[in-house]
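Exopolyphosphatase (Photobacterium swingsii), 507 aa
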Amino acid sequence: MTALNHSSPREIAAIDIGSNSFHMVVARIVGQSLQIISRHKLRVHLASGLDDHLNLNQAAIQRGLNCLAMFAERLQGFDPENVRIAATYTLRQARNVHIFLKRAETIIPYPIEIIPGTEEARLIYLGVAHTQPDSGQKLVVDIGGGSTELVIGDNFTPQLAYSKHMGCVSYNQHHFKKGKISAKNFNAAQLAAQQKIESIATKYQKRGWQTAIGSSGTIKAIREVLIAKGHSDGVITAKRLQWIEDQLLSFKHTDDIALEGLSEDRKPVFAAGVAILSGVFKSLNIDEMIFSDGALREGLLYEMEERFRHSDIRTRTAEAMAQQYNVDTAQAERVKHTAETIYDQIEAHPGLAKSELQPLLSWGALLHEVGLSISYPGFHRHSAYLLRHSTMPGFNLEQQTVLATLVRFQRKSLKLEDMPVLSIYKRKHLYPLIRTLRLAVALNGQRTDIALPQIAVTSNKEAWTLTLEEDWEQDNKLLAADLRKEQEYWRKVGWELNITPLANEDD
């Protein structure tokens, strides 16, 4: 029995915390492919709980937590590296998101990643591309509860990706207040969607595509209505979409909608979703669209599989960004190597695997000088801004914040009161990374390929000891001065940096 368990396929799970529904997909990794073994979905209507000040009300928070509690039952026994949870538009917008995340910690023991809109678009494309036969250049459209993602790509590579603030829940609240349906309301919603897409429409049309593919609930619901009408191929065309619009306008209220194939729980937001898709069709001159079961959660799964095969898109993103901003890669690699050497020697973080933080340190070291492309004075602050606000495929918002924080505190005074609030990590997790990067930057201040003195580091909470070769100071007076300055920076925030010579092995 033990042998059987040892050889069983690895199981992974992905949860999509959407604005309208929460989804969970569980899969086995079998060879080089994924085998979906279960799907779970619950309509949560999270976006409807956002008030005018962008705070989530307690009822919406509780609905979300109840759903996560059910998902947690299915995930009992899953290791953290086998589960990814991604939150999208509503939690990106919610000003009191920290309340939801704090309460979720007690319910589901896996970090919730809040992902940027462009990252959501990339992952949706990945999910669609992996679940569709190769169809050449593809346009993928995903209408969610709070946002709509539009991506053009080829094979598994997205080429254009945008996320627009228009979703079936938010548009329902704004354009179909109290469920009222009218030609005026519908046209206003459709026009608003066209205005959202106006700035990118020409770019998309010039790029072109062979196949338009829709994913997620709104487009699935439209397809099911068309199939029930007799269009067995389920293809959405402009003419068929117009027919659905005409049918909707024959009803006065969303509660009155009687369309075969439309589920009861989809009725409240169906008119808003149709208006958005109609606006997309008109703006991009789409002839027809097919449906794909793949979406964000499948994208998360397939990316997890890629990471298990040591092909992490975040590394490619960091390397591309270093090239984009003309980073001195030789210096970046020196700092990266030194940082990794130091970090390998320090005490592990209680309750948090070093393997989870070490890649962030390495990427931070590689990109610590991107701000030099703006100017030298204050370049650490410029670097932080670029890392926090750039589009970085593969990184969630918290990971970008960690990278920005590391490079912000790589040099000069340590204004720790300026550190941002985090949800997945804690400050105590970042402090060793900051200390490590600062030492790596200081030790490589000469920017030469001359080998550094042998380095040994021990750590005891805020007190670190850096041990260098005996007599190293005689030949490294500038480095010694830099390290004394560094000691002063540490002392001002209650940290301690001791520097000692390494005893001669002959002694």
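The two ends are 56 Å apart (CA to CA). Residues 1-6 have pLDDT under 50 and may be disordered. ok done for today
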